[in-house]
Amino acid sequence: MTDHTQNPPDGETEEGAGARSRYVRTLLIVVITLGVILLGGVAVVVGTIIKRVSNPETNVPVRPGFGETQIQLPAGSEIDDVIAADGRIVVRVRDARGNLLILLDPRRGEERGRIRLNRQE
């Protein structure tokens, strides 16, 4: 007759195997739950991207144009250069008094300021 009272070859007892089995089961449940949460998150992100690409929002408010804006230049002046820089338009004007920089806001169509360039004598 065979004797079933021996320890298993890997050194585990039945008590240890039961506790280990419980931890493995708990770990398996945690891993499956986290995997389902991860897949759900990926599905939400992919769905949002598809929705935004295929159906762009049409109710985004659009600012009306600012119409016609008039900027007063000094009498007898000439425009030398127009430069777009840092969200502004810089108009370089030359007149009898020297050079003048006029700073414009292209979004609002407003003059933001003037800079007179004088030579030091």
Explain what this protein looks like in three dimensions.
The chain has 121 residues and is α+β, with helices and mostly antiparallel strands. The chain has 2 domains: 7-62; 78-117. The protein is 34% helix and 26% strand. It has one helix at residues 14-54, and strands at residues 78-85, 88-95, 98-105, 110-117. The mean pLDDT is 84.
How big a fraction of the residues is strand? 25-35%
| Low-pLDDT runs | none
Mean pLDDT value: 84
Question: Helix count, per DSSP?
Answer: 1
What is the C-alpha radius of gyration, as a whole number of Å?
38 Å
Series of secondary-structure elements, N-terminal to C-terminal: HEEEE
Distance between the termini: 120 Å
> Which oligomerization state do the chains in this entry correspond to?
single chain
Strand line-up of the largest beta sheet:
1-2-3-4
Q: Look at the helices and sheets and give the structural class.
A: alpha+beta
Tally of strands: 4
Report the principal-axis shape: elongated
Helix content: 25-40%
Number of self-contained structural domains: 2
Main β-sheet description: 4 strands, antiparallel
